[in-house]
Design goal:
Largest sheet: 4 strands, mixed
Number of strands: 4
Number of helices: 7
Oligomer: single chain
Order of helices and strands: EHEHEEHHHHH
Strand content: 5-15%
Number of domains: 2
């Protein structure tokens, strides 16, 4: 496979990077600030970056992966596809099994019930122009994230990992969401999630940011 991954290591591209590394796939990593073609001016701000990224993603976002000339965006889709493309790495439950449905369940839960709340606060903190920011929902965003974190807390109190009691790409996707909450200081009531992160951080190829 000829693979190029676009996105910053500190963002959701870390999910894709970690999956590629666990799968043993060689790839080229391109930071979003380096998306300009040779000879083009470097992007000077977020607006420039977004316009530059539209050739890869319709909303100008990252991560994006190009595999043998075909473009795929959304980190969960990228991770799932890579895991399926490299079955020998055994990173995902087999299609058609109940465990695969559990993968879909926890990935969907992580994106809709965890990422979305933190992303809303992020967008309204520094992504949008100041005049367009709405900060009234920040407290609610934290509470909704914490409520969702308790669901994972309950599951992981009795399991080391989310699916089949082994490390899979499901943990890469959901683990990034949990790690984001930890970095924001939202996991004080979740000791099982703390132990879960310790297991993920201990993996040699872990791409989660810990500062």
């Amino acid at each position: 496979m000829d693979v190029t991954l676009y996105g910053a290591d500190s963002g959701r591209a870390a999910r894709a990077k970690w999956t590629l590394d666990e799968a043993g796939v060689e790839y080229t990593s391109v930071d979003r600030s380096d998306l300009a073609c040779p000879g083009d001016p470097k992007p000077q701000g977020l607006a420039d970056l977004v316009e530059l990224q539209r050739k890869y993603h319709p909303l100008g976002k990252a991560p994006v992966i190009v595999i043998d000339g075909e473009t795929l965006f959304e980190s969960a889709a990228i991770c799932t596809h890579i895991a399926d493309r490299v079955p020998e790495a055994d990173l995902i439950a087999k299609p058609g099994t109940f465990a695969r449905a559990e993968h879909d369940q926890w990935v969907s839960f992580s994106l809709t019930e965890m990422d979305s709340w933190l992303w809303n606060s992020t967008v309204n903190s520094f992504v949008l122009p100041e005049e367009k920011r709405i900060t009234a929902g920040f407290e609610q965003n934290v509470e909704m994230f914490k409520r969702s974190a308790l669901v994972l807390e309950a599951h992981l109190a009795g399991h080391d990992y989310l699916v089949e009691d082994r490390f899979t790409v499901t943990d890469i996707v959901a683990g990034w969401s949990v790690n984001w909450g930890w970095r924001q200081g939202h996991l004080d009531a979740c000791p099982a999630l703390g132990r879960y992160l310790d297991r993920l951080w201990a993996r040699p190829r872990c791409a989660l940011v810990q500062d």
